[in-house]
Amino acid sequence: MAVRLSVPLSVAAAGALTIAVWLGGGGTALSMRVPGMDRLFQEVGSTGRPAPELGRLATGDAVPAVGIGGSWPCFRDADRDGISRETVPLARTWPQGGPPLLWARDLGEGHAGPAVLNGRVYLLDYDVAQKTDVIRCLSLADGAEIWNYAYPVKVKRNHGMSRTVPAVTDEYVVTMGPKCHVTCLNSVTGEFIWAKDLVNDFGTRVPPWYAGQCPLVENGRAVLAHGGNSLMMAVECETGRIAWETPNPWKWEMTHSSITPVDFKGRRMYVYCASGGVAGVDAATGELLWKTDAWKIAIANIPSPVHVGDGRILLCGGYNSGAMMLALEENNGVFFARELYRKDPADFGCEQHTPVCYDGYLYAVRSDGRLVCMEPAGELQWTSGDEERFYKGYGPWLAAAGMLFVMDSEGVLTLAAAGPDGYMRLARARVLDGHDAWGPMALVSGRLLVRDLTVLKCYDVRAESGR
Q1: Distances (CA, A) of 434 to 285, 411, 455
Q2: Residue-wise pLDDT tens digits, 316-364
Q3: Strand order in the sheet with 260-264
Q4: Which of 18, 114, 176, 180 has its CA 20 to 30 A from that of 467?
Q5: 235-249 pLDDT, tens per residue?
Q6: pTM for the full model?
């Protein structure tokens, strides 16, 4: 996930109009659906309740997109690997002006990427004027707002505010705000279900550039590596009850990395890069299966672990950390991890986003801005060269249909062929006019969702035959 980068409301009738405008974020008119709209937000923590419990739901006139299938339900899609497996034909070239723009929507400053399910786009936003996190549900058809849920939290600008991608199912949407407020809502109606204040309730320390961890939801549970009085926990989405917790005697803290599910030797485990090392936790019980301090990034532990198969796990980090490959092993039910190799940042690594392992090869943008391809044993296959650099290397990428969609920091999107035979650009266009285009992308039924610091856009990247 990318990391780098009031006037009091009146209780009179005129104040009600102000609230509607504020919660709407412009565009669609919204109407309140919960009581208490004539009360001021209380200061966070003054009631002993998590900030999201003090929130307000507002609904608009928009409806979910009809006739558009597909999904991108969480960070890096359903398998958390940054690969779209949809069969909608995608264009391999674009017109001179780039792919057709379907819609655009202004946002508060941040880098939070979208999740998409059932014709709805879910996004965590921040309203600077009102000092609220805002969970938005938009129509995939035109970006209009179906509902939003806003709750009070004071966040200062620090390379933007919002960071994380929601996790959404047919029933629930779970978000993590910049100051580690976790919220679970009904994904259809936006109704509040529960909230957790990780700092006040579990001893979490907010990471230096705010929370960058994207929630994981599996089997009706939200899995959170909060790094406080326990390392990881699973929360029942229906009730908010904690199903299990993983002890944290080493006092490892939360980083900007997200959890990666890994299947190995018949066990499903959640792998996480914490402040003091990497750990694997049993997905069913929360039992610690293994840990290692061989990979420990003091500051910018941002990219998530990548499972490349057979228990091999690639790790990358910021500030010229390079990369390391771990190998999981098992002996009579006991798991452990050993280091296979390390790569110098001049060879392979990435600062903010997570490498993609696609058709047996690893792809990432190094800190020098070059797109690189490496096979899992560590042999570099190619780089994009001096003339094909991706400015700053902070932008996102994903893989689909034998191609790589790669964004640079200034909003220039490149379509490149995936494969070991050498770098080949297929198309390139500026798709964002702003800067800090660091937010993760989503690809759903040939619709590519991209954002920079203040704008979310949806482009049509389908082949003509798929339209």
Answers
A1: 45, 7, 8
A2: 998 889 999 999 999 999 999 999 999 999 999 998 999 999 999 999 9
A3: 260-264, 267-274, 277-282, 288-292
A4: 114
A5: 999 999 999 999 999
A6: 0.90
